[in-house]
């Protein structure tokens, strides 16, 4: 029994002009227990549509999906689900503490249990100092923290996060990454979308990439980075401007302080270019061979595959 299992899921909307728009096209994937999976793709790829179908907010056109082995058409599957949408909505006249009490009460929890859980989450997301302030006074970062707390108020087994780090400063992103990893340590399963590839690379074990409603990649981070294209970075200190005639016109040269660097895609040119730089009196500082980053890999994949 998988926390999330999706089979041939499709969704077709009607445009304002009455034309059909396929948001999802026979999407199939699964998420293993305790896994953190990044659900990635450009804007309009179908990520949020998938999340809304899994959470019961949107009805799918065809296919099927289940949460913890329970079909998504059965409302009981949502008892073990937590969801943070992009740009969560709150009742502005409530305080932070009142808001969490309200959401917890929807799960039929006892007052003492709710009080302990709310207190814990306010402290965990460092907003206990503002628990008595109305939400209309909260900053975007504070609202994101409250949204995450609301998402796990029921201690769910499956957590779905749609752009959870949007609008957060570096410290806020770090705190959210730690909170997501804590969920994994506690045996929870996380499915999240994000455009911040560095965060995905740090916390996810696997990624599913969507484009135009279709899955074009489903692999572990390790598999992706190992098969991504190798590049060679040459770092050098020039003695004059003759280096400009050594590199191919399509290779970009970057300047950092008094050093210059160039990432070579064509590895066959490495020895020739290094030889010419040395012959012309330029100092070679460093030569690095790297795989493309996750962000570079997905940018290329998103452009190439239909």
In CATH, the topology of the largest domain is named Rossmann fold
Tell me the name of the CATH class of the largest domain. Answer: Alpha Beta
Q: What's the count of strands?
A: 14
Structural class assignment: alpha/beta
Query: What's the tally of helices?
Result: 9
**Count of distinct structural domains:** 2
User: Shape, please?
Assistant: globular
* Sequence of secondary-structure elements: EEEHEEEHHHEHEHEEHEEEHEH
Q: Summarize the main sheet.
A: 6 strands, mixed
CA gyration radius, whole angstroms? 24 Å
How much β-strand is present in the residues? 25-35%
Query: What does the average pLDDT come to?
Result: 90
User: What is the second-level CATH architecture of the largest domain?
Assistant: 3-Layer(aba) Sandwich
Q: Supply the CATH superfamily name of the largest domain.
A: P-loop containing nucleotide triphosphate hydrolases
Helix content: 25-40%
Low-pLDDT runs of 5+ residues are: none
């Amino acid at each position: 029994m998988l926390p999330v299992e999706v089979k041939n899921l499709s969704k077709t909307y009607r445009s304002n002009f009455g034309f059909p728009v396929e948001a999802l096209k026979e999407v199939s994937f699964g998420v293993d227990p305790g896994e953190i999976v990044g659900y990635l793709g450009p804007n309009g790829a179908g990520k949020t549509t998938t999340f809304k179908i899994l959470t019961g907010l949107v009805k799918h056109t065809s296919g099927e999906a289940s949460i913890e082995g329970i079909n998504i058409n059965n409302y009981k599957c949502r008892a073990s689900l937590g969801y943070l949408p992009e740009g969560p909505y709150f009742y502005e006249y409530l305080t932070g503490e009142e808001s969490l009490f309200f959401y917890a009460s929807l799960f039929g929890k006892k007052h003492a249990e709710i009080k302990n859980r709310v207190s814990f989450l306010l402290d965990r997301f460092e907003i206990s100092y503002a628990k008595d302030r109305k939400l209309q006074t909260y900053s975007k970062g504070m609202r994101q923290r409250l949204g995450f707390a609301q998402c796990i108020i029921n201690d769910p087994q499956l957590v779905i996060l749609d752009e959870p780090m949007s609008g957060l400063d570096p410290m806020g992103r770090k705190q959210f990454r730690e909170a997501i990893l804590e969920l994994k340590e506690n045996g929870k399963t996380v499915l999240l979308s994000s455009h911040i590839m560095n965060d995905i690379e740090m916390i996810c074990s696997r990624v599913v990439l969507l484009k135009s409603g279709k899955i074009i990649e489903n692999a572990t981070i390790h598999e992706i980075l190992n098969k991504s294209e190798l590049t060679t970075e040459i770092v050098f200190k020039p003695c004059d401007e003759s280096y400009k005639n050594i590199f191919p016109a399509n290779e970009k040269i970057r300047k950092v302080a008094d050093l210059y660097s160039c990432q070579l895609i064509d590895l066959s040119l490495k020895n020739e270019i290094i030889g010419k730089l040395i012959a012309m009196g330029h100092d070679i500082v460093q030569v690095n061979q790297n795989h493309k980053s996750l962000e570079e890999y997905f940018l290329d994949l998103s452009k190439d595959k239909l």
